Amino acid sequence: MKKTVKVLLSSTLVLGLAASALSVVQSPVYGKGKETSYLIAYKNELPRDFEERIEELGGTVETVVDEVGIVSASSNDPDFLDRIKEERNVLAAEEELEIFLDHEKPDAADGQPITDIPQPDWDDPDQNYHDLQWDIKRITNDFRSHEISKGNARTVVGVIDTGLDFDHPDLRDNADEAGSRTFVPGTRDAWDENGHGTHVAGSIAANGKVLGVGPNLTVRAYRVFGATGGAQQSWITNALVAAANDGVDVVNMSLGGWRWMAHNYGEKGDSASMVAYHRAVQYAVQKGVTVVVAAGNDSRNLGSLHDMQEYWKETYGLDIKGPSRVVPAQIPGVITVSSSNEWSEDVLAFYSNYGNPIDVAAPGGDNGPEYDRLYREDPKGDYLHKRDFRYRTLSTYPTYLPPYFTSNLEGYAFMHGTSMAAPKVAGIAAVIKSENPRMKPSQIANLISKTAEDFGKRGDDKYFGAGEANIYNALTD
After folding, report:
1. How many CA atoms lie within 13 A of 118 on its CB side?
2. pLDDT-based confidence at 11, cuts 50/70/90?
């Protein structure tokens, strides 16, 4: 197998090279349209001449993940996709769309950011926000799991996200900047320009004014999101394969989406995106990586095809036929995490997806019981002013970005979502791995489920799976 290759050429250079090659072989001159990116899944290993064939068909190779037979290519020819699908070595191909993070925006109806918490004094080692971390306290049994194990620096969690603030006082000792990478074209480093990835990383390994599940774990960034843009499937596939090749122990992916999978689903079920995810996850698991993913924030039943199709039709006007999947939440081999809240052991967070793919839950926070009641009565109602941000989860946030709108704190933020739930389970998996280096991903997943607190109906259920994950229980089992 060849190593993963990333080909990034400017559009000017690409067009020049393509024109020269075509003139030499006297290939037909194809029509021009909008420059579009395509994802291509080959049947087996990449053919030796795949790049030449793509160029002959009017495309330009952009990203190659040859370990799993996945390539992205760009073309301004509207017929390129039809031609590449006819290649005998191609299993599936489609237009490559982007995943976008679910960003909330401040609304005039809110007007209630948290302003009564003291700003961080970086020179005061005794100041901390530990009492505000209801989520970490609960799954560590009031931080008692830290007395047993805080993880160790040899155990690495790869965070496939927006990057990290490597200089954050709570993360700088645990964040591996040298080993981090970016997969976003046009960027040269894995620094976080968004905030999402730094918040996720803090839940895993923060060690300061806030604490993560494993304060001694190492976190490494695999950046697939820009400051505001989305992440293409090939970048995510490349990042997951690279993390596995780098020898990380756990990967956290707080990303995904209904709209993205709906648009990418092939007419005959041959989605290149689905193939890419299946292969990349399988590749990582075979290398001993535990892959943890968020369930998504659409309040939908992942186990109900009718519910999914109804949602796509109502929200996006898409009439999706046949079997459909949301990724990575419904990819075999991952640990899929739904979101619990602070105030109930029976009610899942209002936004969390649920259904038979859920393995376990973890605290992702919400807007409080009053908002929950109003939302369930009328999901389309106007009651943003009822949101209580204190019920969200507090974690690290880039010190160089303006405060997140839920508070005026610098370097910390209150957020909620299955994005905030998944990294708790990733942290739990990593602490387990640090104590049991020979454990396989399936064994780690089984221990997490076995030792979860039984929320909701007795036994496994479609909302909490096996229950809310708990690292203290796992360490004392």
Report:
1. 8
2. very low
Asked if 416 is an active-site residue, the reply is no
Per annotation, catalytic residue among 278, 419, 434, 460: 419
Rounded Cα–Cα distance for residues 470 and 477 (Å)? 11
**Ordered structural domains, the chain, with CATH:** 5-96 (3.30.70.80), 130-476 (3.40.50.200)
Residue 391 identity (one-letter amino acid): Y
State the Cα torsion 408-413-417-418 to the nearest 10°.
180
Are 389 and 112 in contact by the 8 Å Cβ rule? The answer is yes
CA within 13 Å, CB half, 192 = 33
The Cα–Cα gap between 321 and 262 comes to 10
Cα 116 versus chain centre, distance: 32
Which one-letter DSSP state was computed for residue 207?
B
User: What is the pLDDT at residue 23?
Assistant: 23
Catalytic residue among 146, 168, 196, 199: 196
CA distance 212 to 202: 6
Please say if 161 is a catalytic residue. Answer: yes
Answer whether the bond into residue 215 is a cis peptide, omega within 30°. Answer: no
3-state secondary structure 119-166: CCCCCCCCCCCHHHCHHHHHHCCCCCHHHHCCCCCCCEEEEEECCECC
pLDDT at 15 over 90: no
Q: Give catalytic status of residue 142 as yes or no.
A: no
Q: Which of 77, 135, 161, 372 is catalytic?
A: 161
Residues above pLDDT 70, as percent of the chain = 87
- The reported pLDDT for the residue numbered 312 is 74
Specify the pLDDT at position 107. Answer: 61
- What pLDDT does residue 4 have? 38
Among 278-282, 305-309, 406-410, 452-456, name the one with the lowest average pLDDT.
Answer: 305-309
Radius of gyration of the chain, Cα coordinates, nearest whole angstrom:
23
pTM of the model: 0.91
Is-contact 135 363, C-beta < 8 A? Answer: yes
